[in-house]
Fold these 3 entries.
Entry 1:
Amino acid sequence: MTNNPLLPLRDKITALDKQLLELIAQRRQLSTEVVNTKIKANIPVRDIERERILVKTLIEQGKKDHLDEMLIKRLYQVIIEDSVLLQQRILQEKLNINTIKSAKIAFLGPKGSYSHSATRRYASKHFDQLEEFSCSSFKDVFEQVENGTVDYGVLPIENTSSGSINEVYDLLQKTNLHIIGELSLPIDHCILANEQVRFEDIDTVYSHPQPFQQCTNFLENHPNWKIVYCDSTSSAMETVAKLNQPNIAAIGNKDGGELYGLQVLERNFANQKENITRFIILSRKAIEVSDQISAKTTILMKTGQQAGALVDALLILRNHNIAMTKLESRPIHGNPWEEMFYIDMQANLDTITMQQALKELSSITLFLKVLGCYPSDNIS
């Protein structure tokens, strides 16, 4: 049998990849040393100008080695984001001293759901051990945290394709829990089946309503498929695995498919290729956020029904130079035609500017509540 002529070249590439990983690990270690220095000197984590100069310098260097500019930009966007989030995490751990190395976290659906993936990702950054609690509804997640059964709840709040998750916003009206973090998870929808089958042999597809809503363009190409709604993508995959029939499939994620022994027929077919879900982390206790990192504050308010009431409230934020990143309105149940407004702001709750803005908002609104202040997960 002749030797594969590619093997020596592949071995060299593998050796270089190992060296790259070692260098990335060394860079992360330096980031740890950098943040410790920043803590002592009270220097902000982000230095936007330094980041721009670094990327510009690397692009110029890459041109000499015939490397594509976009490749360098994308590569260092990921590396810088990892470095910033690592430094933020270290700062927060020192500020909110917590000796607990394990956590109980509730999420929607059985194991294998996107919420389960987000839970594991969050826990991997903050805890050594994780005890997982799957819930059948968003309300159940809230209740598990409120009654102390778990320490945290992970809930999807919005998606770049299908928009806000209204049920979660409605439940935030009634809770005393605090938002202590956020997490953005790329969503890669897959068609999953028990075996490799042709699309024309499939007649029924199971999933949560959200993926169906996010994949309408793809589903239009298969008008004969019967759509069956489930409580979560994981329950859809579990159902397909248990039924074990060649004519059924589920829309879910690759990791969940592997968990239930399903095979990927096709992937990444959402209407928007940049399909990202933002999750929030809920806790019974609020946290303090360092003034050295980028923070978000989320509030809930009710304005009067007079003309310009909402505009007057938003002008207060503008006058204090507070950037609003999200504005969501939801009806108040039991009060027809009245609404609550949810506002995400790029600001730290403990700053003088933010406290003054809240004081002014309180004077012109009928109801105002801070839902949480937490580190921003969006590194632009």
Note: The chain has a mean pLDDT of 90.
Entry 2:
Amino acid sequence: MTAPDSAPVLRPRLPSPLQPLDDERFARRGLTLLLKRDDLIHPDLPGNKWRKLSLNLRAAAGRPLLTFGGAYSNHLRATAAAGRLLGFPTLGVVRGHELAGQALNPSLAQCAADGMRLVFIDRSTYRRKHEPETLGHILDEAAAQHGYSASDLYVVPEGGSNSLAVQGCTELGRELHGAADVVAVACGTGGTLAGLAAGLAPDQSALGVPVLKGGFLDTEIRRLQTEALGAPTPNWRLDDRFHCGGYARTTPELDAFAEDFTRRHGLPVERLYVAKLLYALVTLAEEGAFRTGTRIAAVITGRPGPEAPHTP
């Protein structure tokens, strides 16, 4: 089967808009804040989801696509939507075997409505999915449940971060040539930052704001860049201070910040990634982390949706 080009069917808005934002917290320090509105790329595959999936969709060539995620995974929803729009089967391996006997939450219900077949596995097995033997067992079981063999499946890792995703995200960096000095993005699995940094011009740098705690992303981003590009790039850094305790965790201060940002600028702020990114940039500006005259582009990777319940 010839690999289809999904772009004509999905009609993504590229390049995504770059919008200057008048915010005195930056202006009074001689800084310019720009919003790279990747959330406007596509209504069903916004932001880094389009960029990470586009080359994988072409490589899948219509085969059943299996991927992984938690109960509120943006990546699962985007993959399911792509399957519906392009007409290929999708399977989602969901962390949490106990969820199999419960009513689907809004996020998983949307996946199911878009045709994704859900496979629930226990959390211990899910944590070991990177081990070849465990992964093989998961694929065999998921495929058998739905009438496939494991060899039929095109497998995309959790969050969509693989070498093709990194290559797809390099275009984000190229779209910002000449427009910003520092480009900042919230990080989950690291694929977007890995590609973004590789696509930037030599006089630009990238800043990643991890939304999970654990300090593992530095090694993971270097691995992804090496697999996709041959070697890691030196033009990025991480600031691990803004995860608020981990994925889907928040604080009253972060919630208040997000609500205030929306009041100031009329932009609804997605909590799990975007709020932490913007909060980090305001904090760094107040700390004097950027030189006067710096143009900072914040990548808005998504918009509010059926998110996980926030845990203080």
Note: The chain has two domains: 6-45+169-299, 64-152.
Entry 3:
Amino acid sequence: MRPEALGSALRGILFDKDGTLIDFDRTWGPAAHSVMSTLAGGDRGRLEALMRVSHYVEAEWRFAPTSPLIAGSSAGYGPLWAEVLGRPAGPELYAEMDRLFRAAGLASLTPIGVPADLGATLAARGYALGIATNDAEASARAQCAALGLAPHLSFVAGYDSGHGAKPAPGMVAAFAAHLGVPPGRIAMVGDSPYDLVAARAAGAVSIAVLSGPLGPAARAEMAPLADHILDSVADLPALLGS
């Protein structure tokens, strides 16, 4: 679809959260260290094991690009943590992890740009807005509220909302169904191949942003999956036109 025709064709815009609206490293780097330290219970060896399976670089308080936490949910990497902690893998542990991450993520929450202003701009143009994240829904709602974005959202889905996790297309399809429009009138905006694969599988427009942990280096991986590529969500209003 030509960029000049994109804005008028779309009814809804579905945003990934981490790496798209929120600075992943600055938010989740400190948060993850806090959560891992809490779960390790003061055991340095256990903390180091958690960091190792998480591909976490403690000296820089960030994740390596290979980390399973960058695009995955607690249900995805939870079994790795369960093995280190000597605890059963399952909903009880994952819920505890989600609660700890929700509090720690709010404490270090660092937005990309001003999400509230972006939401207000797009809502004023008539777009319905939503969030699709592999974070827990409660965490996503809490962060969106803290950022002032919540009033502009009509849909928020996390990995635990019943639509599946990305890269499966369930969240994108659910947003289209929520709006009562074909998926082709939805754009999914994200910094991960998971976001773009989900969009393509659902039949939605895929828009990549290069604001995730890999930065501009992600372009080569994202290009085959993206209908459009932007440096950041700040460029989205211009792409959609007036």
Note: The chain has two domains: 3-23+111-240, 25-107.
